[in-house]
Design brief:
Keywords: Signal
Helix content: 25-40%
Protein name: Lipoprotein
CATH topology: TATA-Binding Protein
Number of helices: 4
Number of domains: 1
Order of helices and strands: HHEHEEEEHEE
Organism: Paraburkholderia saeva
């Protein structure tokens, strides 16, 4: 009986450990820096960032400025993501947009923060694959030039709620 229970618990733990895996392509998009090339592009991307957060967040906007978009939340025990988006001007005239998402649930976040980060970055860049984390189709945004980017680290949180550097 004890061996059967132990075997069942091991199988359950193995099933849980693989269910939180993130597709490598999604992870690559989510961790790539989001750096706009000039003021015009940065202004357009910042507006898209606010649109995405407004459409995707279960929480209302708490703060909106030229450098911060932040939602309320997370509420205790809820799986819904709260967002904090930052814009930092770089010395070369570019700007880096940071993305952070977190929830307050021991059961993990819904949507997955990595998938939300990838969705956010696709939407802000204006790419063709603008699927939202919930699988809904967001409003269309005009296309923008996509380029390889380098920049400072950005932070988000793992599905467990722990901070992760992007």
């Amino acid at each position: 009986m004890k061996k059967a229970l132990l075997a069942a618990l091991c199988a359950l733990a193995a099933g849980c450990s693989t269910s939180g895996q993130v597709d490598p392509d999604t992870l690559q998009i989510a961790t790539a820096p989001l750096t706009c090339a000039n003021r015009t592009e940065c202004d357009m991307w910042w507006k898209r960032a606010q649109t995405w957060v407004t459409q995707e967040s279960s929480y209302g906007l708490q703060s909106v400025s030229d450098t911060l978009i932040q939602t309320a939340g997370p509420d205790g025990g809820k799986r819904a993501l709260a967002y904090q988006i930052t814009k930092t001007d770089n010395k070369d005239g570019t700007a880096t947009i940071g993305f952070a998402a977190h929830c307050d649930s021991a059961m993990g976040c819904k949507p997955n923060p990595w998938e939300a980060g990838a969705s956010f970055k696709r939407f802000v860049r204006g790419g063709a694959a603008n699927a939202s984390p919930a699988g809904q189709q967001p409003a269309s945004a005009p296309a923008a030039t996509t380029q390889l980017e380098t920049g400072p680290a950005q932070s988000t949180h793992a599905p467990t709620g722990e901070p992760v550097t992007q």
